[in-house]
Fold:
Amino acid sequence: MIRNMIDQRIIPYIAMCQREGTSLQRGMNFRLHGRHSVILMSRRSDAPYADRIEEDGSVLIYEGHDTAKTKDSPYPKLLDQPEFLNSGRLTENGKFKKAAIDFKRGLKSPDVVKVYEKILPGLWADNGYFHLVDAWCEQVEERDVFKFKLIAIPSSDDDLEAETQFNPQSGERRRIIPSAIKQEVWKRDQGKCVLCGSGDELHFDHIVPYSKGGTSLSAANVQLLCMRHNLQKSAKIE
Structure:
């Protein structure tokens, strides 16, 4: 039996944009081309938003985005995060919130969201597909900040497959590797496949798969593998 893949591909920014068919200039991109949404996250020390991972890597709490910095609004971090534009249309925060609330009210299935995480300048980890299941506002330093709850789903090759996988009763969830572990592994393995030294088509690989009792919470159980060696390993695990 081939393992349930939870390893995460490392992808250059240009390739990420090509995959999604657009220049990803914003962190929140609602239903690109009428398909899944895309969000960009970061837990680096210089990250502008307080994204966090919960429940052993299966839940992402994503922070909404600030109003754009302009001459009239030079300090976005002092303002409530906007739900509406001046025109009355929804911002990306508003679109994601409406989709989450509609799901909670039983009006629709959960939206499918692809999540990419910044690892280094120009390099991102493909964290896979999530379902958007909740949204709310919190008071943070005397301003309103949006929070969105996303649940990781088992590996899928496309968003249509991901859409059909929602099962709130299932305990089967994919776990993403914590950001600090990714940073530690990248530095330790010097950004190369540990088996062949390749620096292309890399993945964060679990040495002992999660399904076999392995963990995402220790760098000792994570390594860098190129795509060829990652696939070879997957085929051998039973």
About this structure: Helices lie at 13-20, 92-104, 159-163, 179-188, 227-236.
